[in-house]
Design a protein that fits this description.
Length: about 450
């Protein structure tokens, strides 16, 4: 049967008006149950055979005579119309099918309820089919606005980045949003993503956390393309006063953090203040490790060490834990606490046995301990630290540093003066405390 597309949309619209009110769709058979069962079987069979056009008349009968039969009716109907719309090449006919698809979602809400779930689905397909159609772009944005209004933090993940893309299209195609209107929507979207990240963290779903953070990054990348000039000066002028007045304003802190990060001014004290506020509310490994580095660069070593230690506790992966412990070791080494630094590097190695950076770091400690351990009695004994450094570099696989350490080994003459022989083992008496096998310069 040839489908009359315009009459199809009209019938759907009439059905929508005829059956107002919310209800549940389950076992809602009409009086003529036998015909209804036959219609379901016919459209089901056509759908199974992917003969979607043949399914339409039977669907229309069910939508008119049994609109509250079962939610399955609308799931099947939207699937059928989606397939028809995606396959249609003629633009006019395609739009008629798309309009029918959109009406089907409204019919489902009217007759079966479940508005949040259904409108989230509708928004996804509206963006796919209508967002770039200038005649429909504003309509899609209005739908997304409603979805965010009714869904709270339960917006579908499919409608996170897409919302920002729809905002961008409205600015680009229609120029119908000013800066404040864009930022209001951006704030709402960012709040939903932040809530989803927090929930995923609480449930230890790291893959979801990583995916959502990637989405947030993509959203932030789009914002400057929406007619909003965002740079560090913008933040200092427009957001800093508000945050200074109320440091507990987490929403503003997050905006400052995001914009200053993308603007490349993370060493600004304002960035640190915002990061501290966010981290206090929701402790995060990435924040802790980056703040530790910035505090260290500014000379606040105590704060840097505390945050690095916190990062080690928060680390979600062995690699992250290794990175945090390496940083702790570096901070301790900078202030001369070499034994404590070595312990941190050993923790890094224990955290991630596949990495060898900890060995190289310990090798650096040993190589730079000549003066610490020097007794100035025997060159051979004083040079034992270079043997210890060499062993660490060998474990790390750093050939260049191995060669540098080997060049500082004792000479044959220096061993002879103590009546020592290559191959013997000796203990280093200073903080290094390692036992090494004697070797001489120029030999492995």
């Amino acid at each position: 049967m040839k489908m009359n597309m315009r009459s199809s949309v009209l019938l759907l619209a009439l059905s929508l008006g005829a059956f107002a009110g919310f209800g549940q769709c389950k076992d809602g058979w009409p009086e003529d149950k036998a015909t209804a069962e036959e219609k379901v079987a016919l459209y089901d069979d056509a759908k199974t055979q992917k003969n979607y056009r043949a399914a339409v008349p039977h669907l229309r009968w069910m939508l008119t005579h049994a609109p509250k039969w079962n939610t399955k009716l609308y799931i099947d109907a939207t699937d059928i119309y989606n397939n028809l719309a995606s396959a249609e090449k003629d633009p006019a006919k395609k739009q008629v099918l798309i309009d029918s698809l959109m009406l089907l979602y409204d019919l489902r809400v009217t007759n079966c309820g479940d508005e949040v779930n259904v409108l989230n689905r509708k928004a996804t397909y509206a963006a796919v089919y209508n967002a770039q159609n200038k005649a429909k772009t504003a309509e899609v944005l209005a739908l997304y606005d409603k979805v965010y209004e009714i869904s709270g933090n339960n917006v579908s993940d499919n409608n996170l980045l897409t919302y920002m893309q729809v905002i961008q299209l409205n600015v680009a195609l229609l120029k119908n949003l000013n800066e404040d209107q864009v930022l209001q929507r951006y704030d709402k979207l960012s709040g939903v993503i932040d809530a989803k990240i927090k929930k995923a963290q609480a449930e230890n779903k790291q893959a979801d956390v990583d995916r959502l953070k990637k989405t947030k990054s993509s959203v932030d990348d789009i914002l400057p393309k929406c007619g909003v000039t965002i740079d560090c000066d913008f933040v200092r002028k427009n957001l800093a006063p508000k945050f200074k007045q109320n440091p507990a304003d987490l929403a503003t802190a997050k905006k400052i953090f995001t914009f200053m990060t993308s603007g490349g001014c993370i060493e600004d004290p304002l960035w640190l203040e915002a990061a501290e506020a966010i981290h206090k509310e929701s402790p995060d490994y990435g924040l802790a490790i980056n703040m530790a580095k910035i505090y260290a660069k500014s000379g606040n070593m105590a704060k840097a060490e505390a945050l690095a230690a916190e990062a080690a506790e928060l680390a979600p992966t062995p690699e992250n834990k290794e990175t945090a412990n390496i940083l702790i070791g570096d901070l301790l080494a900078q202030k001369g606490s070499k034994a404590a630094a070595r312990e941190a590097y050993r923790k890094a190695l224990a955290s991630n046995p596949n990495s060898k950076e900890g060995y190289e770091k310990i090798g650096d400690l040993y190589l730079n301990s000549f003066k610490d351990c020097q007794k100035s009695v025997s060159q051979a004994e004083d040079r034992l630290v270079f043997l210890a450094a060499y062993e660490m570099y060998a474990r790390s696989g750093n050939q260049q540093k191995m060669a540098a350490a080997r060049n500082q080994f004792p000479s044959v003459t220096e061993l002879f003066e103590l009546n020592w022989k290559e191959g013997e083992t000796k203990s280093i008496s200073c903080w290094v405390g390692e036992t090494v096998t004697l070797k001489t310069r120029g030999k492995e």
